[in-house]
Amino acid sequence: MKPLRKAVFPVAGLGTRNLPATKSVPKEMLPIVDRPLIQYAVDEALAAGIEQLIFVTGRGKGAMEDYFDISYELEATMRERGKPLDPLKGTRLSPGDIAYVRQQEPLGLGHAVWCARHLVGDEPFAVLLVDELLWSPASPSISQLAETYAAKGGNVISVLEVPDAHTHRYGIIDPGASEDDVTEVLGFVEKPRQGTAPSRLAAIGRYVLQPEVMQILDRGERGAGGEIQLTDALAQLIGTQPFHARTYRGARYDCGDKAGFVHANLALALEREDIGEEVRTFARSLLG
Predict the structure, then answer these.
(1) What confidence score (pLDDT) does residue 196 get?
(2) Quick one: pLDDT at residue 42?
(3) Which residues of the chain have pLDDT under 50?
(4) CA distances (Å), 94 to each of 40, 53, 69, 98, 111, in order?
(5) pLDDT at 2 (0 to 100)
(6) How far is CA 278 from CA 33, 35, 71, 149, 284, in A?
């Protein structure tokens, strides 16, 4: 079994749920307190031992490349003024640790992942959806999946139980045998019609996948919404490779949703030693 070294970040989306801010700012660069969303996902991958980060970008996403580059003028100015460079920690990655490839058309998540096929090669890889902020610093979601992958092999996805009324918004698994937080996946349905979902266990934007999925995505088969769905390709791997779901333990914030974005800012601000108490006092005053 090959080690997990690579991660794909599909970051070409238009961010229409966060307009008008995302008209000129990539949604992945929207800040949660003082760090952009993309930083949280990158930190999560690095904590799991990922060595190469692959960004699938689109037009207007150059700010992410600049963010992870060296800013000579900024650093020089901060040094001259005696300001610490600590706030920039984590924004500079070693040469060769990060690669960029473009998704030239918005044809779905499966298509975005497929765009990284040459960089992935014949290795297993992780996929992280950046606008899903999974906050569990002691045990990040990808670390949880990597642990299950090391034990079970094959494909592993992160799932969370959602209300019946919300199953039509997600990829839902058909569950088999379970052991603790790990469940065998017998089937996978993308956005099932209301009342037809095989369970309430929904995929929440973290995957560890085998490279064979690229061969299925290469066919360009369209699914829900007329897009190339990653879920549909994964469903075809069931029965040919081990396939498990790991129930995520931690906080989850859908930052592609305006309310979820505000929730994430408030929750993470309250955890901060430097501003937490001030934010808590202000929140209490608003609530009367």
Answers:
(1) 87
(2) 95
(3) none
(4) 17, 11, 9, 8, 28
(5) 86
(6) 13, 19, 31, 42, 10
